[in-house]
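User: My advisor asked me to double-check a structure prediction for Fido domain-containing protein before group meeting. I don't want to rely on an old file, so could you generate it fresh from this sequence?
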Amino acid sequence: MATKLRFLTVSQVQRLHARFVVPNAVPVQPNMLESAIHSPMNMKHYAKEEDVFQLAANLAEKIMLNHAFQDGNKRTALLAADMFLKINGFYLQKVPFAEDLNNKALANAHVAVVTKQWTAQQLGIYYKSVAAPLGPVTAEVMDYRSSALEY
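Assistant: Sure, here is a fresh prediction for Fido domain-containing protein from the sequence you gave:
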């Protein structure tokens, strides 16, 4: 039986982008953002992918390559992958974009995907290697979790 997972919505990813990347920005290509957001759900349904890290990597790759925002697509991809993992019990970043080795390595991993040095599958393996189980759930994560799509 398939595991129920929570998936981010378009508005949630836009909220992350506006909060951490570019205030009040809207996607310049909203259909490309919608496509990126739905990609991990499609992957789960059609490819029967159950690995939350592979699904997070798929989400990040699509956000980066679909280039829905004028600026900050790699940063938005990292925020979205991290929040996707958080609403499903793991995390990548303790503090978004903190100046630490973990966040620098995550940024480099995203550059590797965009420059075709890594595949999304390699990114998922990397996420799995650096992710940690989510401890106490913050109010922000609870908010995202409660309004996420469950599938």
